[in-house]
Amino acid sequence: MNNFPEGMPAIAQKFETAGNITEIKPLGPGFINDTFIVKTDKSRYILQRKNHLIFPDVPGMMKNIELITEHIRKKILAEGGNPLREVLTVTVRKPETMTEAEKKDPAGHLYYKDASGNYWAMCLFIEGSVTYEKADTPELCYKGGEGIGKFQAQLSDFTTPLNETIKGFHNIRWRFRQWDEALAKDAAGRVKDLKEEIGWIEDRREEMLDFWKKVEDGTIPTRVTHNDTKISNILFDGNGDVLCVIDLDTCMSSTSLNDFGDAIRSYTNTGAEDDRNLDNVGMSMEMFEAYTRGYLSQRKGNLTESEIENLAFSARYITYEQVLRFLMDYIDGDTYYKTAYPGHNLVRTHAQYKLLCSIESQYEEMKKIVDKYAR
Length: 375
Ligand SMILES: Nc1ncnc2c1ncn2[C@@H]1O[C@H](COP(=O)(O)OP(=O)(O)O)[C@@H](O)[C@H]1O
Ligand SMILES: [Mg+2]
What we know:
Layout (H helix, E strand, L loop, with lengths): L7 H5 L8 E6 L7 E7 L3 E7 L7 H21 L11 E2 L8 H5 L7 E2 L5 E6 L13 H17 L17 H14 L9 H8 L2 H12 L6 E3 L8 E3 L5 E4 L6 E3 L1 H12 L17 H15 L5 H28 L11 H18 L1 H12 L1
Antiparallel strand pairs: 1-2, 2-3, 3-6, 4-6, 5-6, 7-10, 8-9
The structure holds adenosine-5'-diphosphate and magnesium ion (MG).
């Protein structure tokens, strides 16, 4: 019995695994999803409870993942690669466990909804893969850039429209609407103590909207984007080479600049996202250059002039958005991000803001580096 957390075997058995299930174990503390490793006598799988408070359209999300992974799988097969290792393989439902309604749902084979309304999905565990919590060497930064660049290159001819599974994700106009509402509501009564922090957001409102207008009017093109490009979402092999990009829950159609900016935000930070010691926090130019070099090694010649011109700014945009989101969650009373202690979201806000200031002060140099590798 110890091999199985309560209720888990019944859920895992809804999916088409090879062999008999012998063990189910939780895998680390997920930030957003709860993740389990399901072991059978033949293989291993990842079973995840998809947080439907954050992803209101889990079927749409799973359909996106199926479309994207199928597209990449075809490319890998055409190039003679190993599709079981170089792209996520979604494990589908056992048809005999599906209801008539699930059979009619175009995404019904991709997830299981349990009696409490939780959504579950499964994929193949990629054996021998390594993930890094932090890109702490320029080499790893380069590889991470290469991974996301490759993912974007594999999807550069993907034209199927994707479901917008998180409305307004990385859309600052949408965020400002939420922000204005959060301030007006002041759900946790914290606004009165946040004058300075709120000023950080308001002072930059116009320049952030100016950037987003270029996405809205098509000056900056729309592509398939991953939208959560941290290093822990890339699997590497034992040699440190990129296997594939995982955690595809947030994949949508947007500007690929968001993927770059988010990666710079997470890869180049010399401190932790929730560092209490702000002296630790800042953007490492060495890491920025390494990531940019890796990324552009895959995208060189395939980005538009407007994308190249705005690439460095995307790091400011995404870091700013993260400051806003942490602060907004603090104002809302900590409803979105898991917090480890009271005030955790405010600590995160301060650490991200320090990072933002560091990026702003190095902006001219960043633009020069982009110019050097983009063409
Ligand atoms: N298919 C897989 N093969 C091997 N390891 C995986 C796989 N999927 C996820 N993992 C591991 O589980 C971790 C969490 O999975 P992820 O899908 O990124 O969920 P979360 O939303 O919690 O970040 C990853 O960082 C990776 O270490
Ligand atoms: Mg992840």
